[in-house]
Structure formats: structure tokens, C-alpha cells
Amino acid sequence: MSGRRMPLGARILLASVAIAGTGVLAWKLWRLPRGRYAERFSGNWSLPATSLTVVTYNVEFGNRLPEAIEVIRRERPDVVCLQEIREAQLPALERELGMSGVWWGSFNLFGGGEWGNVVLSRGKVLEAHSIPGAPAGSFGVWAAVELDGARFVVGSVHLMHMKTDGAGFAAREREIRSLLAAIDAAGAPALIAGAFNNPPLGGNYDLLTGRLIDLSAGSGATLPNPIPLLRVDYVFGTREWSAETARRIDSKVSDHRPVVAVVRSRR
Predict the structure, then answer these.
(1) What average pLDDT does range 40-59 have in this prediction?
(2) Confidence of residue 111 (pLDDT cuts 50, 70, 90)
(3) Is 37-265 a domain of CATH 3.60.10.10?
(4) Which of 36, 82, 106, 192 has the greatest number of beta carbons closer than 10 A?
């Protein structure tokens, strides 16, 4: 069967599109973190016998990272969740805090994965991977943490930022539903902390607290610095966890105030 050949200009255009598409895919794959990452958790969960100190901190692209590290160090945390961090900054965090950590890029925000989220612990951090399912791209990293004989999940998230046109609310709702579905699938006691970019009211907060415990309730407003008006940074936990204390740290190093929560298992 014969037919007319595609014009030369059209063939060149199609070839260019194919090459560009391959280049974009290759770039995205290259940007994904390498090493120490897993598809799923292996289980064998257990809860700690003593309380844990959890710090979450959006460090504003790590612009003043040495100062942020000092703020964190003073709290002597067991677990740290950071947002707006470069992968290249992880070794300094591990070294200066004496902790193990993992990083994953944020693809739901600007930057195309240049900035991301970190989970750190003074114990082992294993089986880390992107929190799956959000249509806009990865919005967090989580990992199995082995600490003082316990094994549980810790996640650091940065949900879509607030927008006046309302698009941010809908995007965050999709991310929250993805997060909750992933927690259900993991079946693990989990601590999820980070910049949720949502005040403690409305449908998205109700969606979160319908399934998770707000372990940072009462910590106070965290955004923007230097005079915070909204609480948008949280420590949440599955039903196995309860809060002992929660407060914000009065630091002006970032545009967000950090939050520290002391938590323990309910058993």
C-alpha cells in the first residue's frame, strides 16, 4: 500500500518534539535521588517506650543554614523534618546534627526538584521514598526510622503553597488525599510533619484531623516572620501517637517559625 510521504518540515518538527520529550524525561530521571531508596516498606513496626522530640522547619531554601542548624541543635531532637533544602546540603545537616537523613525533591512547587524535603533521625533512616500519588508531583519524603528499639515511619512534606485564586486549596486537597491513602497502604505508625500551607480551619484541616492527630496543636502561628499570623507548619501522627507538649521556636532565621513537639505512643 502506498501513500504520500510526510513533508520534510513536518518530519523535522516531529523529530524535534521527540528529542525534546526524551531530554525532559532524562532530566527528570537524573534529578531523582539515588541510593538508599526503596519502593515500599518492609513492615515489622513497633512503638517507642519513651517520648520523642520532633522538630519541623521550613528553612527558606537553606539561605541561612548554619543558623538554622543551631536553632535545631538546641532542641536536642530525635527526629527532624525539613523543607526547602537542596540535596547537596544533606551531608552538612547529618554531620552538624549527628543524625542520619534522606532527601527527596519537591516537584509540586517551583524549581523542578531543585529544592526538596529531608527526614533526619539520631537513629537509622531506612527504605526512604517519595510519598506517592499526588498528580502534581512529589510533595514529600518518608522513611522507616529505627530508634531506641522502635520502628515507625516519619515523613516530611511541603504541600502546594497558598494562592488567592483558590487553586492552591484544591491542589492541597489532592495532596492530602494522596498522603492519607499512602498512610493507609503503609499500615504503619507514622509521624508526618512539615509545611502544610493550610491554617487550622476549613475542609483541608478537617480532612487531615479526621484521620490524623494534630500533635502540634497550640504551638502558635508560624508564618510569616517576623510577625506570624497563620499556623501552617504541623506535626501530625497516626492514632498510635499522643502529644505531651508543642510550641513554636521564636527564631527569625527563616520566613517560617520552626515547631517542636514532644510526642509519645499511646500504649
Answers:
(1) 96
(2) confident
(3) yes
(4) 82
